Each structure stands twice: as structure tokens, then as C-alpha cells.
Q: What sequence folds into this?
């Protein structure tokens, strides 16, 4: 529901922005967030991400973890995050599968996972 609403708002803002009017900072941020969400919906051909991996990726987008990731790097971010989850954070993946809903405890666990991923993997990707 929430993502669908954000995507609809993004499409409306994108259409409005084509008129060339000056956009305020919050509108620009919403457009950038929407661009990243659109990129996240694209999966490489013949690649299927498990639902628990998709949940973490979409959570990352909805909670602002992608705001400093260039749109051109979104696919790479997604691939690296899913690989990290599968190799390093199987317990989080299992918890998502078992819980079937986002509890406050599970959200904290996902936040810790994403913070660690950003610090130890994403920020060091080109080193």
C-alpha cells in the first residue's frame, strides 16, 4: 500500500516537473526517491530475488538508506545487498520468513543489518 502510494505520487510529481517550474527541496527529494524506487523494481533478466530479500531492499528504500546512492548505482546496490544478506545475515532472512509482518524488533534487526552493510560493504565497494 505505502509503496504504491509513493509510486503514484512520484508519477504525478514527474509529470508536474516536466512543465519546467522551479521545484522546492522537498519535491526534488520526492522525485529522487521515486527514481530510486523505480530502479529497484527492475530486476536483471532471469534473476528472481527471494521475498525476504525484496523486503529488505524495499525497506532500505523506504527508510532513506538509498538517498546517497546514485540512481545509476541502484542495481549494483541491490545486487550487493542481496548477496550480503544471503552470505552474512541468514538469521534476518529467516526472521522475515517466520514473522510474516514487520514487528518493531524485526525493523530494528533490519536497520542494524542495513547500517552494517552500508558501513562495511557499500561504503568500501571501490577500495
A:
Amino acid at each position: 500500500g505505502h509503496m504504491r502510494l509513493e509510486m503514484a505520487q512520484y508519477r504525478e510529481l514527474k509529470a508536474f516537473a516536466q512543465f519546467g517550474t522551479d521545484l522546492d527541496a522537498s519535491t526534488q527529494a520526492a522525485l529522487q526517491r521515486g527514481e530510486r524506487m523505480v530502479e529497484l523494481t527492475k530486476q536483471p533478466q532471469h534473476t528472481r530475488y527471494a521475498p525476504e530479500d525484496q523486503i529488505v531492499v524495499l525497506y532500505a528504500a523506504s527508510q532513506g538508506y538509498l538517498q546517497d546512492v546514485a540512481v545509476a548505482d541502484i542495481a549494483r546496490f541491490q545486487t550487493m545487498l542481496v548477496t550480503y544478506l544471503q552470505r552474512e545475515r541468514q538469521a534476518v532472512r529467516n526472521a522475515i520468513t517466520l514473522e510474516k509482518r514487520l514487528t518493531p524488533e524485526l525493523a530494528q534487526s533490519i536497520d542494524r543489518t542495513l547500517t552494517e552493510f552500508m558501513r562495511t560493504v557499500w561504503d568500501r565497494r571501490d577500495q
In short: The CA atoms of residues 83 and 93 lie 12 Å apart.
